[in-house]
UniProtKB/TrEMBL annotation:
Gene3D superfamilies: Dsl1p vesicle tethering complex, Tip20p subunit, domain B, Dsl1p vesicle tethering complex, Tip20p subunit, domain D, Ribonuclease Z/Hydroxyacylglutathione hydrolase-like. Residues 476-503, 550-577 form a coiled coil. The keyword Coiled coil applies. It comes from Rhizoctonia solani 123E. Keywords: Coiled coil. The keyword Coiled coil applies. Residues 77-201 form the Metallo-beta-lactamase domain. This is RINT-1 family protein. GO terms for biological process: endoplasmic reticulum to Golgi vesicle-mediated transport; regulation of ER to Golgi vesicle-mediated transport; retrograde vesicle-mediated transport, Golgi to endoplasmic reticulum. Pfam families: Lactamase_B_2, RINT1_TIP1. Residues 201-242, 316-335 are annotated as: Disordered. Residues 209-242 have a biased composition (Polar residues). GO terms for cellular component: Dsl1/NZR complex. InterPro entries: EXOC6PINT-1/Sec15/Tip20_C_dom2, Metallo-B-lactamas, RibonucZ/Hydroxyglut_hydro, RINT1_Tip20, Tip20p_domB.
């Protein structure tokens, strides 16, 4: 079946159409018929034999194959996939070489059209044939598929293994052509009636609210999917590879759910038939079904009981000859003979009409009106066999009927229904597997002469298969019947061949005639084209001016037309503006009339007219795309706002006049005021409240949201604040002495006093008036105080730029603003029940940021202040460090010094005070990130610098004490210059004092940080830092601050903010302690060198020597006593005791090692042992002298124990000691040691001590 070309020179596609089903919904044969005994149904019974195979009919549907040209593949379009489609595919796809399905088009959502959708999984599972199949349906059909088979739309509804077909859905609409990819002709959906349905209630679920209802023109409804449409729960959820599109443009399912599919402007929306105030009644409605027009060659209507008029118009307008008919003025509803559809497929269930299907009369009328070359009937029931339908078609074609045909009751019944005579129509029954050929090669094959040898071969095969034995040969009646059937079929084919040849000759003649007419028409058009070119050329010459550089007349006309349109638009705009200005003037004048001293809602009627006018204008001037608002719309909005401000101003002035009579803004003495003045004030105050309430109502009706600023509040209180603002400006924004940049506390105190002075008047007189108004939830005192803040905010914004060059004044102003905020909060002020919370509709109280936030929220101003604070603090630190008494003890010579504390140096005390002063300055800051920045930028660098200073001093001390004399930055006493004895700086009393100052400085700052870390302020700051990721990042990046722990991962936040710095200072305190001990011990050990060198020189000792102090011990003992005395004087008892124990233990061990254990082995005579014991007690006595009233023996115990052992009398006592220490048991040895007072030496050390005796 080759289609006619749609235009001259265009090549038509090569098409073939295959009927995959031609039966009704229940299909044929009927199970009840073929299982009855006996079988009485002729049609169904014939399907059991070979002669009745054409009576086997599946659910109606078709396959349209567009044959490619070798460069492009074939395209396969399936129309309807009913219950029997899969069996049809098993039969037809292998027979005709079909495999892929490019598109499925559904006519309606009945089982015989859509229940085979699930069987399409065989094509898409695992992409066995293709990845997906495009499905084209109406919105109503899509909803029914979604309701019946939800898993076909969204995989989340699939059960079992989840193996479902992959579809891509497309929504198509009535009379809106669409194309399938790879197909170069349009497919136009048309609406036909397929029976009817009843609606008894408005919510009848069997009649979806988008079921198409004819209203003038039949059009499918907008695809408004119901809430049951599955929505994707996440971007990665399975959507069954579904895309839904409106006629080919893919969109997501969610997009369809949210926005549905938009109706074309030419389509009417679907409306219900039941009126709002009418009880629903049962009314029949047509059930609508789609038919299709394929290009201009085929009309397909498989399920139809009625064709609406607008559908007939669509069929006619798409016919090949429609253009010629219009040109020829034909008004007939039948397509002319020169341009006809090639094929019509039409529904015909039975002879009689049916509620949902055509009978023979309907099918005949449709065929006659469409006037296609060929009409095929489908949708047959089982009452009439195929041969009878074929005879009825011959009758309609005008052929003579033979006696056998006239004997058939069905044929006679059709003849009784159909009209006699008239123009013949070619109409035949289709059957399953019928293929309408469009391939030229196949047509040539059919036209070729028969192959005799092939026919003989097939005849022999037939005989061999049916007559395999002598018994079967005896049944020659079967062979005779088969021969007779074949003969009759051959005669019929010959007859049809003659008819086809006659029609072919007729078609060729008609085509030649039409081609000649088209050639003549083309020549005529060519002539007209040349004439038009000449006319256009002449017009061009007339329009082009003589001066080629000038503008053409046409361009001038276009420019004038453009300017005319602009002027017309400007005129319209001016008319709008004129009307708006007129309404604005009327609105203000209505308020200013003398008769409007009292407020009433009627006086705002002119303003309401203006508001409504502006709202309507804005609707016309703006669109919903969110583009920029036109200038005129902004002007109208501003005009409405300014008009309202003028109205408000009139009432504000009245209240100002009334309040002035009471003495406002000075404190009001109500008892001393006249009753009339008080009543006038009350009335004007209430009028302004009423005006504000009505204004809110007008805004709500007009959906207006004017811009608000920080002064928005109750109109009445705003009016009272206005004279206060004027007085403030007079005093503090002028050249008066009260306007001074260095005295911000003056204007802060002024505003604070005003709030306090008027509190009684506001709470006891104003608050009751507000309580009776619609704004009864407003707290008058809080609202009045809030409205005073913008006065200060303006002053601060004006002053700060002038203060940036004066950091000290800037810091002072900010500090005063923080004090003001604290005072306001202490007075009980909050934003609860103020206009700000009411306007923003906040249920939770908003925290007031404070007036200081004007500066603190301004990044550059805050940075300037921070930098000023940093420079100031660094300057103060440097002044402290370079002070001559920086490292002197803070209360040297002060008898009131508490021995429980380590006396700090002046620098440590001053730095602590400096850092506490910094804390005091930034403690009132409202935001934790500002506090953290102050800590990191200002305080931590000072602590780091002081730590570095002390550490460098200790480094310098160690360097100088090692005789490497060099200038070391950070030395406590300054740089070491020429002519300075380096050893003097690090030795003796002076050296120890330097170490003690370093120790005390570090200890003082460490103790201060421990105290700060446990304070509430720094604990709260540390907690907030751990809770906020931004602050954690800043703190974690700083090496001198501890690592944070996110509050979400820790049950409890441990540590303090200064733990890391404390650990650094602890390390330097420990280092200073070690250096103090090493310094004292090393100096004593140096002095002991002479003692060790001469202790063996004396050959004997007398009694006098036993009581005298050896000269070699005087210097060591004096050095020890001096250093211990300095420790006792400088440090508290606990610190002194700790250092003393370590010093004494070290010296005792040193003497014991040098005199007894190693160097004295076998050299100490008994008398020298006694002397050594006396000398050992001298160390204890010297320590007791430096540290009176303290127990000092403990650290010297090892030395005393060694002295006791070497001083044992010679002879029997010494021998007994040796015998016990070397030979006795451990218990006996311990008893002996306890007896002679040895407590700290072990057995080996006691043996080493005895070996020092010369008599050992």
């Amino acid at each position: 079946m080759t289609t006619a070309a749609t235009s001259v020179g265009a090549s038509a596609p090569t098409i073939e159409f295959i009927f995959h089903g031609t039966g009704t919904s229940s299909s044929l044969p009927n199970i009840a018929c073929i299982t009855s005994d006996p079988i009485t149904c002729e049609t169904c019974g014939s399907t059991l034999g070979p002669a009745g195979q054409k009576n086997k009919r599946r659910n109606t549907g078709g396959i349209l194959r567009v044959l490619g040209d070798g460069q492009s593949p074939n395209r396969v379009i399936v129309i309807d996939v009913g219950k029997t489609f899969l069996s049809a595919a098993y039969d037809l796809f292998p027979r005709y070489g079909l495999r892929r399905i490019d598109a499925v088009i559904l006519t309606h959502p009945h089982a015989d059209a859509m229940n085979g959708l699930d069987d399409l999984r065989g094509w898409t599972l695992g992409k066995s044939i293709q990845a997906h199949i495009d499905i084209y349906v109406s919105a109503f059909t899509f909803k029914e598929v979604q309701r019946s088979f939800p898993y076909l739309v969204a995989k989340e509804f699939a059960t079992g293994g989840g193996d479902v077909p992959e579809f891509r859905w497309h929504i198509i609409k009535e009379n809106e052509p669409f194309r399938i990819m790879g197909v170069d002709f349009d497919i136009t959906p048309i609406v036909v009636h397929h029976g009817r349905l009843f609606m008894t209630t408005e919510g009848d679920r069997h009649t979806p609210n988008d079921t198409p209802i004819p209203s003038g023109t039949a059009s499918p409804a907008k695809a408004q999917f119901n809430s049951g449409t599955p929505k994707s729960s996440s971007p990665g959820s399975q959507r069954n590879s579904i895309e839904i599109s409106a006629q080919g443009d893919p969109v997501s399912v969610d997009a369809v759910n949210m926005a549905a599919l938009q109706l074309s402007p030419t389509h009417k929306p679907i409306t219900r038939l039941t009126l709002p105030n009418q009880a629903p009644t049962a009314k029949p409605k047509p059930y609508l079904c789609f038919g299709f027009i394929f290009g201009d060659f085929m009309v397909y209507m498989s399920d139809v009981s009625h064709i609406p008029n607008d559908t007939w118009e669509t069929i006619q307008s798409n016919s090949p000859g429609f253009g010629n008919q219009k040109n020829s003025g034909s008004s007939s509803g039948v397509a002319n003979q020169t341009g006809r559809y090639r094929v019509l497929v039409v529904d015909c269930l039975r002879l009689e009409p049916h509620t949902s299907h055509f009978g023979i009369q309907g099918a005949f009328d449709a065929a006659k009106r469409v006037n296609a070359h060929r009409t095929y009937m489908v949708g047959f029931g089982h009452r009439i066999p195929h041969d009878d339908w074929n005879s009825i078609g011959e009758y309609l074609e005008g052929r003579d009927m033979n006696e056998k045909q006239l004997e058939r009751p069905n044929v006679l019944g059709a003849m009784g229904i159909l009209p006699q005579g008239g123009e013949p129509v070619w109409i035949r029954p289709a059957y399953d597997g019928l293929r309408l050929l469009g391939n030229k090669e196949e047509i040539k094959t059919l036209l070729s002469p028969p192959d005799v040898s092939l026919s003989e071969t097939r005849a022999l095969e037939y005989l061999d298969s049916n007559f395999v034995s002598w018994e079967s040969i005896e049944q020659l009646s079967r062979l005779d019947a088969e021969v007779e059937r074949t003969r009759v079929e051959a005669q019929d084919l010959e007859k049809r061949l003659g008819e086809s040849q006659q029609l072919t000759y007729s078609f060729i003649s008609t085509t030649n005639h039409q081609t000649k007419s088209l050639i003549d028409y083309a020549q005529e058009l060519s002539l007209k084209r040349h004439l038009m070119v000449d006319e256009i050329s002449a017009l061009h010459d007339e329009l082009v001016p003589a001066n080629q550089e000038g503008a053409t007349l046409l361009s001038e006309l276009e420019e004038l037309q453009k300017r005319l349109k602009e002027l017309e638009g400007a005129k319209s705009y001016l008319q709008v503006l004129e009307r708006a200005l007129e309404l604005s003037e009327r609105g203000v004048q209505a308020i200013k009339q003398p008769a409007t001293d009292r407020f009433s809602t009627t006086i705002l009627d002119p303003f309401k007219d203006l508001s409504d006018f502006v709202s309507r204008a804005n609707e016309l001037l703006t669109d919903s795309s969110g583009s920029e608002i036109p200038m005129i719309a902004r002007f109208l909005g501003n005009l409405r706002s300014s008009t309202w401000k003028d109205i408000k101003g009139v009432f504000t002035n009245r209240l100002a006049e009334a309040s002035e009579k009471l003495g406002w803004p000075l404190p009001i003495n109500l008892p001393a005021s006249s009753v009339s003045d008080v009543e006038a004030f009350q009335q004007t105050f209430v009028d302004l409240l009423s005006l504000q309430a009505e204004g809110e109502a007008i805004q709500a009706r007009s959906e207006v949201s004017d811009n608000k600023n920080e002064r928005d509040g109750l109109y009445s209180l705003e009016a009272l604040v206005l004279p206060i603002a004027l007085r403030f400006k007079f005093h503090f924004d002028s050249t008066r002495p009260t306007s001074r940049l260095d005295k911000p506390e003056w204007y802060f105190t002024h505003i604070l006093n005003i709030s306090h002075e008027h509190r009684g008047f506001i709470e006891h007189f104003i608050q009751p008036l507000i309580d009776k108004s619609p704004f009864h939830d407003i707290n008058a005192q809080n609202e009045f105080t809030r409205l005073l803040f913008p006065i200060l905010a303006r002053k601060i914004r004006k002053s700060v730029p002038q203060l940036l060059a004066q950091p000290s004044l800037l810091a002072h102003t900010i500090y005063q603003s923080l004090l003001f905020d604290a005072a306001v909060r202490e007075s009980g002020f909050t934003l609860v029940n103020t206009w700000e919370c009411r306007a923003t509709k906040q249920h939770k109280a908003k925290e007031w940021p404070g007036v200081a936030d004007v500066v603190l929220s301004h990044k550059s101003w805050f940075d300037e202040w921070m930098e000023a604070e940093r420079h100031f603090t660094e300057h103060q630190y440097n002044e402290i460090i370079i002070s001559p008494d920086a490292f002197a003890f803070s209360n040297d010579g002060n008898e009131d010094f508490q021995q429980a504390d380590i006396r700090p140096t002046n620098s440590a005390r001053r730095i602590k005070a400096l850092l506490e002063q910094v804390t005091e300055r930034y403690q009132p800051l409202p935001h934790y990130n500002q506090r953290a920045r102050f800590l990191i930028t200002v305080q931590v660098p000072i602590l780091e610098a002081y730590y570095g200073r002390i550490s460098s001093s200790l480094d310098a001390f160690e360097t100088l004490s090692s005789s490497f004399v060099r200038a070391v930055p950070g030395a406590l006493a300054g740089q070491v210059g020429a002519g300075v004895d380096a050893r003097k700086l690090t030795s003796g009393h002076e050296g120890l004092q330097r170490l003690l100052k370093a120790y005390a400085s570090a200890f003082a700052i460490k103790s201060a940080m421990q105290e700060w870390g446990d304070s509430i302020f720094f604990l709260e700051l540390w907690t907030e830092i751990n809770e906020k990721s931004a602050l954690r990042a800043k703190v974690d990046a700083h090496p001198s601050l501890p690592h944070t722990t996110p509050a979400s991962t820790a049950e409890e936040i441990h540590g303090t903010l200064f733990d890391e710095l404390i650990s650094q200072y602890v390390s330097i305190v420990t280092r200073a302690e070690d250096m103090i001990i090493r310094h004292v011990c090393s100096e004593v050990e140096v002095e002991l060198k002479g003692y060790f060198a001469k202790q063996w020189e004396s050959g004997h000792d007398n009694d006098d020597n036993l009581v005298a102090i050896p000269a070699t011990l005087v210097s060591p003992l004096t050095t020890l006593t001096t250093h211990l005395s300095l420790l006792v004087k400088t440090l508290p008892s606990s610190a002194t005791a700790s250092l003393y124990r370590r010093i004494a233990s070290s010296i005792a061990s040193h003497i014991l090692q040098r005199s007894v254990f190693h160097f004295g082995r076998g050299r100490m005579i008994p008398s020298r042992g006694v002397v050594f014991a006396r000398e050992a007690h001298l160390w204890v006595e010297a320590s007791q002298l430096a540290m009176p009233n303290r127990r000092v023996e403990g650290p010297w115990q090892r030395l005393l124990d060694g002295a006791r052992l070497v001083s044992i009398p010679e002879g029997a006592d010494f021998e007994a000691a040796k015998d016990t220490i070397w030979r006795a048991s451990n218990e006996q040895c311990a008893e002996f040691a306890e007896a002679i007072g040895v407590r700290s030496l072990d057995r080996k050390e006691m043996q080493d001590a005895l070996r020092a005796r010369s008599d050992w």
